[in-house]
């Protein structure tokens, strides 16, 4: 039965019992056991109560937490109700048909999320699950995990509200000389003793690289296997972007919801062995949790839904980016920072780091980029490294603006489409009819303006040729690919001030290349720009990257990847063009339901409830496909298009503690002819569609645009509906 298969898999995760002493001192612990008279959940609750007084996140043995989870009884009827409630939301997943039948050159196997969801339901009906944990694990592992999609997620309550799995060591992937295949070492060893750190040969008895790959592939938010592999290792960029995260092998990411066994055993090339107990971070309030029944009551009984909170800007401490050198300029939250390189052949190279496209202030984000480019050019910098490492996305139009700052006279494609599921088309009919006579620029009805300024209104967006849609059918008549109806190709209308400059409905900034910023100068020649990746470029980052590569002709360098010869992709994250949470979809369907009396439409909207929202910690779908110019006719989403970087490089030991070494290596490969581990930027076949010549100019005194922004004044607090329109980022955790 299924319960037996899950139990066997859990046992195998621990690997063989490799017990040996390592040469250097280590601390090895044993897995605690429980007796029949003492429940695992009660032990954890007691330990949590003692630790929480002095520790922000208490930890316990992973095996103990696993035992607690397996004591949680299955509530069959509630589980079936949950599965049924998820189904209508999955119908919004725009590329589901392609996930079921991907192109031959797509690495991950196809899977049918709808069939798998139905299988989970049939397993429930047939009493195949031993407890709540095995049910939710199967739901997560078979419906969500195989999607490899940073916008598609459902985090069930039992898996996420109480525990997150952790390991006691982090890994790095480094080449000894930049040419040899990378090997795996412990991050802690490389930092403390880089000259003597031994490579890891086996993890739990399995070849180290294979173990890492197999582990992350079970549930990664990356669509590319090399990007997924990279995410398992420590990188300064990930640590800076994700609050100190040291790689998903140690903790975090989607695999932190999958039990990895009671311990992890490392066998090193020098013959030593290190075995460490795996941990569970106790992230839930364990008050009153003494057994499986009380666990279910605490974490799995749906609580009354609360009103969605608005986005509140985070107060910045003006600290520099952790682990990075002092910048020339940076946003107050450290999301954007600029640097100048030093060293032979690098005197004219500037580096801009974008940890995300979401910052506390879109205006400051834009202004800091403007200031840095202007000051770099004035200081004689003619070359630019764009560091996209660990960039998981952010505000969509911030990505558009960044591209147009670098290429103000180049029209971006920005092609996308929606899946025409029944609810989407029903909402579109209702909203389009509602605002038929509305002038959004003179109306005082905020709700109607909000409905007008959405993709559901056929008058919103532009078509493939940057013209307006004239009728409902122009935009929404089905375009069928893989037996799935899709909308027409659409593009953002960046001349609409309600989308751009308006602070209530828009970004609150003029997009570069438009309006008052229509005549700005291009700061760098295309051939003098290089994009730097670690594979983790997702969501809005992919949109900006595609524009820079396709419309700008910018070259790229990608680091890392599996220890296999050949090219790797730089943009390894989700390439979808829009994410909506389940709550967003529910809000739109409820709004539409309040505006119609059509029984058929009301019946469709009645399928949506807040149950899956209350029974999860995160739930979202990718609702809009990005379509590259090469695939407008065949309809293949960008998510399934392989786009290898021009140059592949390997990390080396000095790069683990000095991020500037990564920048220098990328710059030398891009501008000074340094050899790549694979590929060659000089022979890149990408067409350069724009070129400028920049002369060295004397440094000049100018007031920074970013200094004109009053940082004491907080940016507007945006509604959840505003975020649904403008915010797009991968959900990796």
Provide a descriptive summary of the structure in words.
Pfam families: PDZ_CPAF_rel. It comes from Tolypocladium capitatum. This is CPAF-like PDZ domain-containing protein. The protein has 733 residues and is α+β, with helices and mostly antiparallel strands. It has three domains: 2-16 and 30-164 and 280-299, no CATH class; 335-407 and 522-574 and 639-708, 2-enoyl-CoA Hydratase, Chain A, domain 1 (Alpha-Beta Complex); 416-511 and 576-624 and 717-729, no CATH class. It contains 25 helices and 25 strands. The strands form seven sheets. It has an eight-stranded mixed beta sheet, sandwiched between helices. Strands 2, 16, 21 and 22 form a four-stranded antiparallel beta sheet that branches. A four-stranded antiparallel beta sheet has the order 7-6-8-9, covered by helices on one side. Helix 14 packs parallel to helix 15 and helix 16 (422-434) packs across helix 20 (582-593). It starts with a helix and ends with a strand. The model is unreliable at 1-37, 307-319 and 686-701 (pLDDT under 50).
Summarize the topology.
Blueprint: H1 2-13, H2 40-51, E1 59-61, H3 62-69, H4 76-90, H5 96-100, H6 113-125, H7 132-144, E2 153-156, H8 157-160, E3 163-166, E4 171-174, E5 183-186, H9 187-192, E6 200-203, E7 206-207, H10 208-217, H11 225-230, H12 236-241, E8 263-268, E9 273-277, E10 279-282, H13 292-299, E11 329-330, E12 336-340, E13 349-354, H14 362-378, E14 383-387, E15 393-395, H15 396-406, E16 416-418, H16 422-434, H17 446-452, H18 472-476, E17 479-481, E18 484-486, E19 529-533, H19 540-551, E20 555-559, E21 578-581, H20 582-593, H21 599-605, H22 611-614, E22 616-626, E23 647-649, H23 653-657, H24 659-671, E24 678-679, H25 720-726, E25 727-729
Parallel strand pairs: 13-14, 14-19, 19-20, 20-23
Antiparallel strand pairs: 1-10, 2-22, 3-10, 4-5, 6-7, 6-8, 8-9, 11-12, 12-13, 15-25, 16-22, 17-18, 21-22, 23-24
Helix pairs in contact: 2-3, 4-6, 6-7, 14-15, 15-19, 16-20
């Amino acid at each position: 039965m299924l319960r037996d298969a899950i139990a066997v898999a859990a046992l195998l995760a621990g690997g063989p019992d490799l017990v040996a002493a390592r040469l250097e001192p280590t601390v090895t612990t044993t897995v605690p056991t429980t007796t029949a008279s003492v429940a695992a959940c009660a032990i954890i609750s007691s330990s949590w109560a003692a630790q929480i007084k002095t520790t922000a996140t208490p930890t316990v043995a992973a095996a103990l937490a696993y035992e607690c989870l397996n004591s949680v009884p299955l509530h069959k009827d509630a589980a079936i109700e949950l599965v049924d409630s998820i189904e209508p939301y999955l119908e919004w997943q725009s590329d589901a048909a392609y996930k079921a039948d991907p192109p031959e050159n797509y690495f991950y196997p196809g899977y049918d999320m709808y069939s798998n969801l139905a299988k989970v339901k049939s397993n429930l009906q047939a009493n195949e699950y031993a407890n709540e944990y095995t049910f939710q694990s199967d739901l997560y592992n078979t419906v969500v995990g195989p999607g490899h999609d940073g916008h598609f997620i459902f985090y069930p309550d039992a898996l996420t509200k109480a525990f997150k799995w952790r390991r006691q060591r982090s890994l790095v992937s480094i080449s000894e000389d930049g040419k040899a295949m990378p090997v795996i070492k412990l991050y802690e060893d490389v930092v403390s003793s880089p000259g003597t750190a031994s490579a890891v040969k086996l993890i739990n008895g399995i070849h180290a690289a294979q173990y890492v790959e197999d582990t992350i592939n079970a549930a990664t938010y990356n669509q590319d296997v090399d990007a997924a592999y990279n995410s398992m290792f420590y990188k300064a960029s990930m640590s800076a972007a994700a609050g100190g995260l040291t790689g998903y092998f140690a903790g975090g990411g989607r695999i932190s919801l999958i039990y990895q066994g009671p311990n992890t055993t490392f066998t090193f090339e020098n013959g030593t062995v290190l075995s460490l107990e795996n941990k569970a971070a106790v992230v839930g309030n364990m008050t009153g949790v003494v057994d499986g029944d009380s666990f279910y009551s605490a974490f799995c009984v749906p609580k009354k839904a609360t009103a969605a909170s608005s986005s509140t800007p985070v107060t910045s401490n003006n600290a520099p980016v952790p682990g990075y050198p002092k910048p020339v300029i940076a946003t107050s939250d450290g999301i954007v920072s600029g640097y100048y390189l030093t060293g032979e052949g690098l005197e004219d190279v500037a580096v801009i780091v974008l940890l995300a496209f979401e910052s506390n202030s879109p205006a400051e984000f834009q202004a800091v980029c403007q200031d840095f480019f202007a000051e770099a050019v004035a200081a004689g910098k003619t070359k630019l490294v764009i560091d996209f490492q660990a960039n998981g996305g952010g505000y969509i139009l911030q990505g558009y603006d960044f591209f147009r700052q670098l290429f103000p006279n180049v029209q971006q494609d920005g092609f996308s489409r929606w899946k025409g599921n029944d609810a989407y088309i029903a909402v579109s009919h209702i909203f389009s009819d509602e605002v038929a006579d509305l002038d959004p620029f003179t109306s005082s009805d905020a709700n109607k303006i909000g409905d007008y300024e959405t993709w559901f209104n056929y008058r919103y967006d532009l078509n493939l040729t940057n013209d307006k849609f004239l009728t409902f059918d122009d935009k929404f008549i089905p375009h069928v690919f893989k037996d799935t109806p899709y909308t027409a190709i659409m593009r953002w209308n960046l001349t609409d001030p309600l989308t751009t400059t308006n602070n209530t409905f828009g970004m609150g900034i003029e997009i570069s290349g438009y309006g008052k910023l229509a005549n700005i100068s291009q700061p760098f020649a295309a051939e003098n720009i290089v994009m730097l990746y670690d594979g983790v470029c997702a969501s809005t980052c992919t949109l900006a990257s595609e524009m820079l590569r396709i419309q700008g002709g910018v070259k790229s360098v990608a680091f890392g990847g599996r220890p296999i010869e050949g090219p790797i992709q730089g943009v390894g994250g989700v390439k979808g063009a829009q994410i909506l949470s389940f709550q967003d979809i529910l809000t739109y369907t409820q709004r539409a339901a309040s505006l119609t009396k059509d029984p058929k439409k009301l019946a469709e909207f009645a399928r949506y409830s807040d149950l899956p929202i209350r029974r999860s910690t995160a739930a979202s779908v990718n609702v809009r496909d990005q379509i590259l110019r090469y695939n407008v006719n065949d309809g293949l989403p960008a998510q399934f298009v392989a786009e290898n970087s021009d140059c592949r490089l390997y990390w080396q030991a000095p790069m683990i503690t000095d991020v500037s070494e990564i920048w220098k290596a990328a710059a030398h490969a891009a501008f000074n002819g340094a050899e790549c581990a694979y590929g060659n930027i000089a022979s890149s076949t990408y067409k350069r569609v724009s070129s400028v010549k920049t002369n060295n100019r004397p440094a000049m005194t100018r007031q920074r645009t970013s200094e004109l922004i009053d940082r004491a004044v907080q940016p507007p607090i945006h509604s959840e509906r505003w975020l649904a329109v403008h915010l797009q980022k991968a959900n990796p955790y």
